[in-house]
What we know:
By secondary structure, the protein is mainly α. It folds into 2 domains: 36-174, no CATH class; 187-289, Cytochrome Bc1 Complex, Chain D, domain 2, CATH 1.10.760. The protein contains 12 helices and 4 strands, in the order H-H-H-E-E-H-H-H-H-H-H-E-E-H-H-H. It has helices at 2-22, 40-49, 52-56, 100-109, 124-127, 132-142, 165-174, 187-199, 203-206, 245-254, 267-275, 279-289; strands spanning 74-77, 80-83, 224-225, 232-233. The strands form 2 sheets. It has a two-stranded antiparallel sheet with strand order 1-2. A two-stranded antiparallel ribbon has the order 3-4. The N and C termini lie far apart (55 Å).
Amino acid sequence: MKRILFLCLVLGVVGLGVFWVVTTPVRLTEDAFAGISGDAGRGEAVFHASGCASCHMAPEAKGEAQLVLAGGQQFPSDFGTFLAPNISPDKTHGIGAWPVVDLANAVLNGVSPEGAHLYPALPYWSYERMALQDVADLYAHLQTLPPDATPNQPHKVGFPFSIRRLVGGWKVLNMQPDYVVTGTLTAAEERGRYIAEAMAHCGECHTPRDALGGLDTSRWLGGAPNPSGQGTIPNITPGKLSWSEDEIVEYLTTGFTPDYDSVGGHMVHVVENMARLPEEDRRAVAAYLKKVPAVP
């Protein structure tokens, strides 16, 4: 019996050691940005395509106030309610004191400047496909926005999900740096894939999740329950979305469907963001959506 208990103890220690190693946060160093300088003008397009203001503006913000990224919006999930942090250039409560590599580690790797895992409420599952140049441009643009001194609020997450190290295990199981839609694509379709899968993170809402909150990429963009508990987020694959490319572009520009209905819910912000991009980017997204495998 003592031998069995000792063996269990050894296996437990070894298992804990393996878990600790594989869940160690992966971080970029400043060398990653050697020779890369950000451009705030280009970063504005990245900012809109990535939907930064949609999540990080203050609750109910309107107009120019949407550019004050004070945080505070709440996002419910099966694992708790997450509150968006302040990402304004305030040096105390925002990210004004961060170097560009800190922003990159947050959005690409889901790691805080202190080296802790961030919850995937920040869609780094998608953002990890972003180019470093776009991250540098986004960083440059964020520094031009109004600073705000609103303190960050803690997430409302209970045990065991409050253990940040477990997020490292989630990353091991779920992070997928490759694109979901592969195969031969035109240049426009590749651009649309980059916008939809990386920056705009369409799959984060339109793809169903498994019991651990990972995206079921076998049903990519096939519709999902609304995390708020109110209705469902639609299937936008070719099997269900019968709109033409022109109709998709029109929807992403004006918010009106071919049936003269109008956009609602959080998608209002998505359309506002897409409408600020060049038309060729919206056309690229439409072309990409036509290449996505149909999900019944």
